[in-house]
Amino acid sequence: MRDRLWLIGMMGSGKSTVGAAAARRIGVHHHDTDAIIEARAGMAVSEIFEAVGVAAFRDLERQAIEHAATLEGIISTGGGAVLDEQSRSIMADTGPVVYLAAEPATLRQRVSDVGSRPLLRSDPLDALTRILEKRESWYLETAHRVIDTTGMRRGEVVEEVIGVWNDS
């Protein structure tokens, strides 16, 4: 068994919810890179985007991933964590990486508060579709395992993640 497992995927794919539930079930810590960033910056991700911009946020995200790579447990990443080559490498080298995939329409149903998500403020479904098209290859390149969560209940996804943890 490894010390950590990474969850990657789009916003709305269930990384934080599934990660926390799976970690509780197997008795390990759950870490969320967005929460690490918010704690370090003293503000919400949406506020960071507005205050310092996307590029500076991605630097903070890389630092959070570097830190999380020293922790044990299940780590949920932000949807854009795969945009940085160094972050992709860190994740792939330090534990199994699970891509929680879902169709854009499913993601849109799951993302309730689009106002707090800077990338979704205009047309959420169109934005999710465009973002997924840009990121999909990096998700697939980084992942050791893909779980298509479209049509799955949360408990089923949690069981799949636990299975990956136990097999690694």
Q: Any chance you could write out the topology, listing elements then pairs?
A:
Layout: E1 4-8, H1 15-26, E2 30-32, H2 33-41, H3 45-52, H4 54-68, E3 73-76, H5 85-94, E4 97-101, H6 104-110, H7 124-142, E5 145-148, H8 154-167
Parallel strand pairs: 1-3, 1-4, 2-3, 4-5
Helix pairs in contact: 1-8, 2-4, 3-4, 4-5, 6-7
Keywords:
Rossmann fold; alpha/beta; 168 residues; globular; single chain
Q: What do you see in this structure?
A:
There is one protein chain. With 168 residues, the protein is an alpha/beta fold. The protein has a single domain (4-167), classed as Rossmann fold (3-Layer(aba) Sandwich). The chain is 56% helix and 12% strand. It has eight helices and five strands, in the order βαβαααβαβααβα. It has helices at residues 15-26, 33-41, 45-52, 54-68, 85-94, 104-110, 124-142, 154-167; strands at 4-8, 30-32, 73-76, 97-101, 145-148. Strands 2-3-1-4-5 form a five-stranded parallel β-sheet, with helices on both faces. Helix 2 crosses helix 4 (54-68) and helix 3 (45-52) crosses helix 4 (54-68). The longest helix has 19 residues, at 124-142. The N and C termini lie close together (5 Å). 40% of the residues are buried.
CATH topology: Rossmann fold
Report the principal-axis shape. globular
User: Sheet with the most strands?
Assistant: 5 strands, parallel
Order of helices and strands: EHEHHHEHEHHEH
Mean pLDDT: 91
Radius of gyration: 15 Å
Helical content class: 55-70%
Task: Report the top-level CATH class.
Answer: Alpha Beta
Portion in strands: 5-15%
Parts with pLDDT < 50 across at least 5 consecutive residues: none
Going by CATH, the homologous superfamily would be P-loop containing nucleotide triphosphate hydrolases
Could you give the distance between the termini? 5 Å
The secondary structure category is alpha/beta
